[in-house]
């Protein structure tokens, strides 16, 4: 019986190993069959992937080109704005009495110190503004002859200047340094013009 068991044990072990090898073969054969069916799809996907890589590279170049164009346009805009800015002029002898006009930011006198954009003008020796076109004029300074104007550098905003009267002061901001200088010169010219047009007895009084 021992000899029989020994002989039987040999072919049973071999049979188990052979069954295991058949199972492995069947597993990989089924896997191959499944992946073989997917082979056309995988080839198509690989081709699409190659095209996506090319499209991505093209899109990257286009975006870089657009970015460069935007930078050039920004520089051109600044240059154009500066060019238009240089043509800002004032006329104390304007037929309509308006020495100069344009948009300025005005700092409110409330506790919040908010800034609002208004349409300002110098006319009839006064500094006035409107919230909207055709609105009633709001007088900021009734008589420019009693005022002084000066640029302000120690402030949180650029291109600011201040018009100071005996009763109050008005902080204003222009859109550029040239516009600020133009407004300051316009106020000073209006003050000088108003003095020239008024008789000496007026100042004595």
UniProtKB/TrEMBL annotation:
What terms describe the molecular function in GO for this protein?
GTPase activator activity; zinc ion binding
The terms describing its cellular component in GO are: endosome membrane
Keyword annotations: ANK repeat, Endosome, GTPase activation, Metal-binding, Repeat, Zinc, Zinc-finger
**InterPro entries in UniProt:** ACAP1/2/3-like, AH/BAR_dom_sf, BAR_dom, PH-like_dom_sf, PH_domain
Location in or out of the cell: Endosome membrane
Q: What Pfam families does the record tag this protein with?
A: BAR_3 (PF16746), PH (PF00169)
Q: How is its activity regulated?
A: GAP activity stimulated by phosphatidylinositol 4,5-bisphosphate (PIP2) and phosphatidic acid.
UniProt domain PH: residue ranges: 97-192
Recorded superkingdom: Eukaryota
Topology term for the membrane: Peripheral membrane protein
Q: What does this protein do?
A: GTPase-activating protein for the ADP ribosylation factor family.
| UniProt domain comment | PH domain binds phospholipids including phosphatidic acid, phosphatidylinositol 3-phosphate, phosphatidylinositol 3,5-bisphosphate (PIP2) and phosphatidylinositol 3,4,5-trisphosphate (PIP3). May mediate protein binding to PIP2 or PIP3 containing membranes.
Protein name, per record: Arf-GAP with coiled-coil, ANK repeat and PH domain-containing protein
Q: Which organism is it from?
A: Machaerirhynchus nigripectus
Q: Which gene encodes it?
A: Acap3
